[in-house]
Amino acid sequence: MPRIALFCLLQALTLPALAARPFVTDDARLTTAGSCQLESWVRIYPESREIWALPACNPFGNLEVTAGGGKARNDGQHGTGDFILQLKTLLRPLETNGWGLGLAGGMVHHPQVNPGPNLLGNTFVYVPMSVSFADDRIVMHANLGWLKDKASGEQRATWGLGGEFRLHDRLTGIAETFGDSSSGAFWQAGARFAIIPERVQLDATLGRELSGPASSRWISFGLRLTPDRLF
């Protein structure tokens, strides 16, 4: 799969209220009520690279709004950019040793694919579910959703399954697999480290397409900022 095409697929699957970085699979949690967060990262492939910035705010307590985007560039070729808008709410908040359920939807605009004044690109909706075990030392996440590709008119089912595993008070391991009904499955694994717990986080992952070529592998590095209160 060409790297720009993979970029477009991953951003569509990455439904960016993205579980806390570095997940692609989303969780049944929201940004702190009355505050905002910023998730940013780079993803590096053998022949291309991406950079993302996704601010998200939760001004009312149970509605998270994410608006941001990313750019990708192949070696020696022109780059492409995507813009994302997403809304997310919780139907059941996640509690320790319990489970949570949410609902999210939005759109992704690909200017190079869908040029012109129409800002409506791919549309998507999905349900994130999370389950906590062993006093939050293990938290599992599952997503099931739907995506409509504007350029082709194709409709796809999307899915994701992942887990976070507390290794230390400040260190968490992550592993996940995700994909859609018309493309291959992907996996990634890595860790996040809290420089300042609940405020500043660094993370890194390795991943690739499950049955894809070596050129589908990537490494990513991210920074997440979650201030206590802004409103």
Question: What is the CATH H-level superfamily?
Answer: monomeric porin ompg
Number of discrete helical segments: 1
Global shape: globular
- Quantity of strands, as a count: 12
Total separate domains: 1
Main sheet: strand order:
1-2-3-4-5-6-7-8-9-10-11-12
- Terminal Cα span: 44 Å
CATH topology: Porin
Reading off the top of the CATH hierarchy, the class is best stated as Mainly Beta
Summarize the amount of helix as a percent range: under 10%
**How many strands, which pairing sense, and closed or not: the largest β-sheet?**
12 strands, antiparallel, barrel
What structural class is derived from the secondary structure elements? Answer: mainly beta
Poorly predicted segments: 1-9, 11-18
Protein name: Transporter
Keywords: Signal
Organism: Zoogloea dura
Signal peptide: 1-19
How would you describe what is shown here?
- By secondary structure, the protein is mostly beta strands.
- It has a single domain (3-225), classed as monomeric porin ompg (Porin), CATH 2.40.160.
- It is built from one helix and twelve strands.
- A twelve-stranded antiparallel barrel has the order 1-2-3-4-5-6-7-8-9-10-11-12.
- 40% of the residues are buried.
- Residues 1-19 form the signal peptide.
